[in-house]
Amino acid sequence: MGLQGKKTRELYQRATKVIPHGVNSNFRYWGQDDTLVIERGEGAYIWDADGRQSIDYRLAFGPIILGHGYPAVVKAVQRAIEKGTLFAWTTPLEIEVCEKISKICKVDKVRLTNSGSEATMHALRIARAYTGREKFIKFEGQYHGMLDYFMFSNASVPLSAVGSAHNPINVPMTSGIPKGIVEYVINLPYNDIDRLEQEVRAHWGDIAAIIVEPIMGNLGSIMPQAGFLEAIRSLCTEYGIVMIMDEVKTGFRIAPGGAQEFFGIQSDLVTYAKALGNGFPIAAIAGKEEVMMTISPGHMAHGGTYSGNVVGTAAASATLDILSSEPVYDTINKHGKLLMSGIGELLDDAGIPHVVMGVPAMFGFALGTDLQPRDLRSYHKSDINLYEHLAMKLIQRGVQPDADGREPWFLCYSLTEADVARTLQVFEESLAELKAEN
Ligand code: PMP
What we know:
The chain has 438 residues and is of the alpha/beta class.
């Protein structure tokens, strides 16, 4: 028996008639029996088409920082769009949002766009135009969106294909990428400063950018080891390479100024999306004056019909005001810490080796090992099947993290201490069921 109730199943079957596999993003496809249809969300909860309620720790893959249908944000959008949704000119709202981002994130200039993929795509182009170089470095296990250039050696490729850590093989995550694209991509193991230095010193003249997720938000929230982000920063400065921090997951989530503030490192370019709009579509490319001003009408293109649209900017403006004025980060951190330590204790009691990773606002854990994973290869030493088996038990009981342990547990401001207690109770019950099976 899968996760679908009767009505969900009917709706899902209907969806498959017109939508390939019944989903508008492959990441939402959990198979014929477990792909859900969600009817509504409120605060920290979602309800599927059969009215089954869950505490939501997926939060739309991270954007929902305040809560689903957060009234102050919804009202701000409603008010704003009464006066129109999109113009072929700048609006005061866009100016306001870019001013707020500039101030909160200490970035000189900001351009708005609509999704993380659009932001990272433009950031790479800016870096290439700025440096006049064509290749770039990314790290194995990281995800930067749907652009062909980025879709190599993400966390979902088979480990058997990636080769040795010293000389990784670029493995495409999808069919449909032209053969030549791979020539521009250098994948390196995360957290390996020596290997990074070696690559940069040998090939810096070809390298436009180093793009990095400051926390591995698509691989269990593995943290950067001491000195890793600093090494990227100093190599980029030394060799005239553009450092791009991909803060699509960490931005406005792990601290007001995201990972730049959290780790005390200013990047040359930063990409934001998800938490910026609490679930409304908005993203941004931001960074240092000199690099951002590479964008130039007639010379270096950044564009988009919907960039800076009223729906997204009104949502971002309201979201940023709430993030700045209410105890969002304190609340999320308090609850996240309770969950991280509570889950750790329950796994201890159950005698399951584990490590808890990441930060309270987006944490992960790996099972079957007590060694902290530091990259794609070491993450695979953990028991990925056991994680999924346990997660499915939680989901069946109304606590919904992703079944895939590579996706972090996300927290929102609306989550209460009672929700945390309920989650830990369900976790304990699920572990008991697991034990009974063995
Ligand atoms: N960068 C990172 C770090 C991401 O996690 C994601 C999406 N999960 C993206 C880029 C792409 O964002 P989007 O799905 O909005 O295109």
